[in-house]
Amino acid sequence: GWTGLSAPWLLQIMDSIVPMLLFLALWFFLRAAGFSRVEALAGAVVFCVLELYNLNRPIYQRTSFLLSIVTFLLILRGMKGKMASGLVGAVLLGTSIGGYFWQWTYSWAWVGILLLLELSDRAQAGTPFFSSRRGRLLFITLVAALAAIPSVLQLLALTGHPLYQEAVYRSGMFESRLPESWPYSVLFLVMAAAVAWLCIRYREAARHYRAAIATVLTSAAVIHQQVVHGTTFNFVSHYLFPMIASAIIVLLLCWSLRGKPRALIAAALAAAVYLAAVGWDGRYGLWPFTVTDARYSEQHFATLLPVLEQMPRVRILSDPDTSLFLAGATKHDV
Predict the structure, then answer these.
(1) Vertex 64, ends 60 and 70: CA angle to 5°?
(2) What is the pLDDT, as a whole number, of residue 22?
């Protein structure tokens, strides 16, 4: 790669930096979303404790979610009049298309839902449109759409590739409008209904927590996107990081607003059930340094490293198990 580092060294550096940056970015985002310093800190700590296992997985969501959070923070600053930050966020949003599918679809859905919430705010009616929060957000969204054109054209070109249908089949995409996970659907629809009711019944409080509410609504929307376009993308767990953040936001909203409206109490229970399930699934992260015999099952590959390092970068045809070693420990492609 352009760093000149081998994969093990690069991954060790990322392991040291990315989780810390994600923790800080999440704290800043929760603060920007309306929560106090202590509430934001509690939310960031709970998130990282629950995701200790997945935060140690480099080829996963930690880096893409960090990119989303940074993009959201820049856009929120742009909405407050810091348009330089807003434009940088717009470029990040636009160029994210073509990257990690679940990251850019979530980011665009979040911006779209936030824009709808801002456009429905009657309190901004007397303000010149492009001097208001919703006007600035609309401008940022338009800039992001322009920045996205090259990536969109590239994706459209890929659909004409002879192997495109084969790639679709192997990716696990299939036609269906049914929820992929009924438990997820029930829990997140309860959370979404509660924050939607908050927007209707307590408009002033909802205005303060608008970015937080947009996050919860976006999580409920993206895991049901197949209802709209009829294609299921396996799996909804690829939205795991923003879904966990949304459940934590629901708990923080219930705490901050003291359970008003009461629908937030039901939402908090749904969030607690979801987070408990996530915590149980990620319980292995509490023992990250446990040494087992299985960790040495591929130790014999170590003798290959000096030979592979001396070779120029090439593409190697390999079986699935060995290809993981090649991708994770060498400079070669598989």
Answers:
(1) 150
(2) 94
